[in-house]
Amino acid sequence: MAGNREFFNRKLHSLLGVIPVGVFLIQHLVVNHFATRGASAFNQASHFMENLPFRYALEIFVIFIPLLYHAIYGLYIAFQAKNNTARYGFFRNWMFKIQRWTGVFLVIWITWHVWETRVAAAFGADVNFDMMANIFSNPWMIAFYVLGVISATFHFANGLWSFAVSWGITVTPRSQQIATYVTLAIFFVLTFIGIRAILAFVNPDLANI
């Protein structure tokens, strides 16, 4: 019974990391990327998301609860994990390690990000371009958020590779190699989108570099 429960939990953890958490990450990065078009474009995109029907139900049941489960069980996996170089090989073993490291860091980073934005909004703050620009007026926050974006995009992309293996989508060495290239491309594309958005908040001219 314990083995079946752990199998189910790991499967659910893997699935939630892609749907809905991974989908939300992409959506969030795309909305932030509107900052490259100026403050007005970002504010319009942000307010559109804030005015979605059933917003609070969506946030609680589609974002926060799945994310909380994924984070808590992910921490359990991270601190219980034992690296196996014979099974994963050198490259995959490093991906395995970094996946755990980024997962632990993301728990801290996401908590801080939610506190600075979503919790602040609950107390009356307006989540807009000026709020983000004010956050990024601190160079340490720029570095912190850049590291957070890179961690999030890596964790998602590498988690997508693991998801494809664990759910039987990529079962052959060839398919797993192709999946490695695809997920690396996803990582670079999403990271580019995320970093450009940060640069736009710091200095709109830098976003065009």
UniProtKB/TrEMBL annotation:
It holds the Pfam family Sdh_cyt. InterPro entries: Cytochrome_b-558 (IPR011138), SQR/QFR_C/D (IPR034804), Succ_DH_cyt_b558_Firmicute (IPR016002), SuccDH_FuR_B_TM-su (IPR000701). Its main location: membrane. The keyword Transmembrane applies. Keywords: Heme, Iron, Membrane, Metal-binding, Transmembrane, Transmembrane helix. The chain crosses the membrane at residues 12-34, 54-77, 98-115, 135-157, 178-202. It is found in: Membrane. SUPFAM superfamilies: Fumarate reductase respiratory complex transmembrane subunits (SSF81343). This is Succinate dehydrogenase cytochrome b558 subunit.
